[in-house]
Amino acid sequence: METLKQETTECCPVFHPEKWDEKSFEWRNKQFIKGSVPTFFHIPYPSMIGKQISSLTKIAEDANKLDSNRENILVLFADPHPFKSEIFMSVTGEVPDAKNITLTGNFMSKVFDGAYNDIPKFIKQMNDILNEKRLKASKYYVHYGYCPKCAEVAGHNYMVLFAEIEKIKSI
User: Fold this and answer.
1) Any alpha helices (H) in 43-155, and if so which ranges?
2) Across residues 127-152, what is the average pLDDT?
3) How many independent structural domains does the chain possess?
4) Where does 13-96 show beta strands of DSSP type E?
């Protein structure tokens, strides 16, 4: 996976694919604050995403619970059904006046570069990788390396699929 040579984008930190590509993570009560946006058959309204992320960021900053290294902040998306997308922003502790949640489990990540509507194809590719390792995903989260404006500047639309590992299949 190619690493960006540039030092800046429009507003997002420079994304380093090697940090996330084909890595395993064991999260034990990893802290996040949660928001949501309406979608239409899994297609979000971009302006609503920006507003929700700005709101979550402000709440976390006001509480001094946002990682000072912006490259470490995860903003995960999950679509529990066609008309709602959940957004999880990683934080460094409990945030007053926010919906605080934790994620616990084993996760595998894989970086993809492509269009947003390629996510079903990327999930299939990730499932193939997991099957080769005799693993199975119980749930997927997506972290976008860049907002749409920064993806255009960077020339890449990176996204990281985080597969929550259900269990190891028997031989």
Assistant:
1) 46-62, 119-132, 148-154
2) 92
3) 1
4) 23-40, 43-44, 75-81, 84-90
Does this model's pTM top 0.70? My answer is yes
* pLDDT beyond 50 at 2: no
pLDDT of residue 9: 61
DSSP state of 14: P
Tell me if 155 is assigned to some domain: yes
Is the CA virtual torsion 9, 63, 68, 23 positive or negative? negative
Task: Compute CA 40 distance to the chain's CA centroid, rounded to the nearest angstrom.
Answer: 20
In a domain, 1, yes or no: no
Q: Would residue 12 count as lying in a domain?
A: no
Residue 102 belongs to what domain range? 17-168
68 domain-assigned: yes
31-78 pLDDT per residue, tens? 999 999 887 777 777 778 888 889 999 999 999 999 998 889 999 999
For residue 151, give the 3-state DSSP assignment: helix
Phi, psi at 114, each rounded to 5°: 175, -170
CATH number of 146's domain? 3.20.80.10
